[in-house]
Amino acid sequence: MDFSQYIYNVKIIEDFPKIILWFGESLGFWIQSAIFLLSAVGAVSVIWHNGLLAKKRAIIDLLIQQKSNKDLIEAIQKVYKLADEENYLSQLASNDSGDRRAILTVLNNIEFIAAGMRMGAFDEKTYKQMQYSNVIKLWAVSSSFIHELRKIDGIDTLFQDFETLAKKWEKAPIKFIN
Q1: Tens-place pLDDT, residues 115-126
Q2: Which residues of 134-147 are buried (b: 16+ CB within 10 A; e: fewer)?
Q3: What is the pTM of this model?
């Protein structure tokens, strides 16, 4: 063994207690703590990811349920038929009729979804990709009804989440897929 290897070996032996003890703890303690910390970070990321998946699943389940809800389907068809015939749904805001109830059924449904997205219960990106055209079209045909209903009832916040969502999406439409 030459002299440089001897010095190197002595240096390691002298520094060994410093390596073992750092802030009064052994190397094994710090390795165990690091592994525990990495496990905690991994668990948090899994929980966060599962939350995102749950939001997507919730909106997809809701859309599937809506496709089988005959009352809602009939109400949506009635709203679009009325919009074609009447030009302005606002005329129906003041009378209590089956047409008004159909419009309110559709608007309450979309308001529920819009509020759920605002509060973080539903994934907006997924819903936008699946329902952009329907939301924009519904806003176009029902906005006059909503504004008239607000005047009649004196409540400026009626269907505000739906309005906010529709206006937000109008400013940022979905992208064309090649």
Answers
A1: 999 998 888 999
A2: ebbebbebbbbbbb
A3: 0.72
